[in-house]
């Protein structure tokens, strides 16, 4: 029977088969399976078939409008079987990705607070990378679609129940906070799934687009140190290493933009925290400048390639002097770098020079990107640099006349 129903699962990717199953009321049959079956594999396959059927717009609309089926599917998020959880989240993501029905599911999830508990439980305790990535994609989509739901999840600290618990639901769920759960999931996926890490970093970025999200990070028991430490490690030890080819920035631009955006928000909100002091984060400045250097190299290559191409080929390929996503990354990187340079003391600069994170080439790259928008930050840094290394300061002033001291 398992082999036969797996064949149906595979065939349900075909629209004609999916319509046939819909005509014979397969979703209603699956409701009976969910209610009575104690076989995890059968439940997984039935949810998987529904997931395939939901890829087609009309069927997705029919499934989504069935309130009873919707409730039963959300209850499957409390299932203890990882393959079933994976298929349930795949189905939810498929529905949330279709504009005509996304709001139905957002409203349904908002009205069922235990979805929050189940999702946080998975993110905080699962070691199944595929499941964590899919759950992350669902959360990312939810937050992107509905800020009110995101705010509710940020504020949600105590366990709320969806009504009667199912036999499959965990007996006791602790009080969850969404940000520690997101961090735990990110730690699990970072080594095995770069795309998954990108998803979780984007969730963090979405959380910091509202003041409540920033406060939830910086007012946590650790004052935001766990978040800062993870992101610091990713920037300084994971991405854009000195021996990486500059072109790698193209692969890392979206995840780096999310990471630096969150770091910038924390830095702006927590200047008094010890872990954020510049003396403990000098390597970060070197990494930020390396990001800018790699972007300059990519832009130069893009311009050179466009010059070699025929005009009509360039227009067809959509080649521009600066990739849109690189521009976003550059803007975020410059904002954080300017804030950090402005906080540097004489001792910090000496340490940066000693460790090789600062030199004439790197400072020139930083100034080139920061000016004229962040003139005040550059001027403040240069003023301290004059007291630290007069020769370097003079060379930079010669390269950037606008920074020269007026007689």
From TrEMBL:
<protein>
    <submittedName>
        <fullName>Serum amyloid A like 1</fullName>
    </submittedName>
</protein>
<dbReference type="InterPro" id="IPR016024">
    <property type="entry name" value="ARM-type_fold"/>
</dbReference>
<dbReference type="GO" id="GO:1901647">
    <property type="term" value="P:positive regulation of synoviocyte proliferation"/>
</dbReference>
<dbReference type="GO" id="GO:0005654">
    <property type="term" value="C:nucleoplasm"/>
</dbReference>
<keyword id="KW-0539">Nucleus</keyword>
<comment type="similarity">
    <text>Belongs to the SAAL1 family.</text>
</comment>
<dbReference type="InterPro" id="IPR052464">
    <property type="entry name" value="Synovial_Prolif_Regulator"/>
</dbReference>
């Amino acid at each position: 029977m398992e082999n036969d129903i797996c064949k149906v699962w595979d065939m349900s990717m075909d629209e004609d088969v999916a319509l046939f199953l819909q005509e014979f009321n397969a979703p209603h049959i699956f409701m009976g399976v969910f209610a009575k079956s104690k076989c995890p594999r059968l439940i997984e396959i039935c949810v998987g078939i529904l997931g395939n059927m939901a890829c087609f717009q009309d069927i997705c609309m029919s499934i989504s409008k069935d309130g009873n089926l919707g409730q039963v599917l959300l209850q499957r998020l409390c299932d203890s079987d990882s393959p079933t959880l994976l298929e349930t989240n795949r189905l939810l993501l498929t529905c949330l990705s279709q504009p005509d029905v996304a709001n139905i599911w957002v409203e349904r999830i908002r009205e069922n607070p235990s979805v929050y508990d189940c999702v946080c439980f998975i993110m905080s305790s699962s070691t199944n990378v595929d499941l964590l990535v899919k759950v992350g994609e669902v959360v990312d989509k939810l937050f992107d679609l509905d800020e009110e739901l995101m705010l509710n999840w940020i504020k949600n600290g105590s366990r709320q129940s969806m009504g009667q618990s199912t036999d499959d639901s965990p007996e006791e769920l602790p009080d969850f906070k969404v940000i520690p759960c997101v961090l735990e999931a990110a730690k699990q996926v970072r080594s095995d799934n770069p795309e998954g890490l990108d998803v979780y970093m984007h969730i963090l970025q979405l959380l910091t687009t509202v003041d409540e999200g920033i406060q939830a990070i910086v007012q946590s028991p650790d004052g935001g140190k766990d978040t800062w430490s993870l992101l610091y490690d990713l920037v300084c030890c994971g991405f854009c290493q000195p021996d990486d080819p500059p072109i790698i920035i193209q692969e890392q631009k979206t995840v780096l933009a999310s990471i630096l955006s969150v770091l910038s928000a924390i830095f702006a909100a927590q200047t008094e925290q010890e872990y954020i002091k510049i003396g403990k984060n000098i390597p970060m400045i070197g990494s930020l400048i390396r990001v800018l250097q790699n972007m300059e190299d990519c832009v130069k290559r893009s311009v050179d390639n466009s010059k070699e191409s025929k005009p009509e080929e360039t227009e067809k390929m959509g080649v521009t002097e600066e990739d849109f996503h690189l521009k976003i990354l550059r803007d975020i990187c410059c904002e954080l770098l300017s804030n950090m340079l402005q906080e540097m003391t004489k001792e910090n600069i000496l340490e940066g020079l000693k460790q090789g994170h600062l030199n004439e080439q790197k400072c020139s790259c930083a100034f080139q990107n920061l000016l004229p928008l962040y003139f005040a930050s550059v001027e403040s840094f240069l003023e301290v640099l004059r007291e630290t290394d007069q020769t370097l300061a003079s060379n930079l002033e010669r390269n950037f006349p606008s920074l020269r001291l007026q007689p």
